[in-house]
Amino acid sequence: MSEVSIFSVDTLLKYMGNDDKARAMVGKIVADACAPGMQPLLLAGTAIREGRLTDAGKMLHTLRGAIGTLGAKRLVSASLELEQALLGQHTEQIPTLFASVDAEYRLVLHAAENWLRQNAPEQMR
């Protein structure tokens, strides 16, 4: 059984031709997806603290969609759990689930930075 991935653009590279041009395009996708850094999660956390659970859920859904293309299956799973808790207003579960999303998102950003350092053209870094 394969390990659920933190970050993997191998499939995306394969579909795009797995050559230098594909690597440059994927590098741009990765850089663009990670450019906001922790800001989306900080905004979602603020919305949660302010009781705007629906807004927080929408923010997390957007983040999940943007980062999901990077093969971040663990983050996608954690975010989906948190989104469902927000939707169901299961406030007792939200802090633990948010901490899990935060940890996974940090791992994705770190892995993406490493991938960019090793694979993307200089102007992408």
From TrEMBL:
One of its GO terms (molecular function) is protein kinase activity. GO terms for biological process: phosphorelay signal transduction system. Keywords: Two-component regulatory system. It comes from the Bacteria. Residues 44-101 form the HPt domain. This is Hpt domain-containing protein. It comes from Duganella fentianensis. The lineage of its organism: Bacteria, Pseudomonadati, Pseudomonadota, Betaproteobacteria, Burkholderiales.
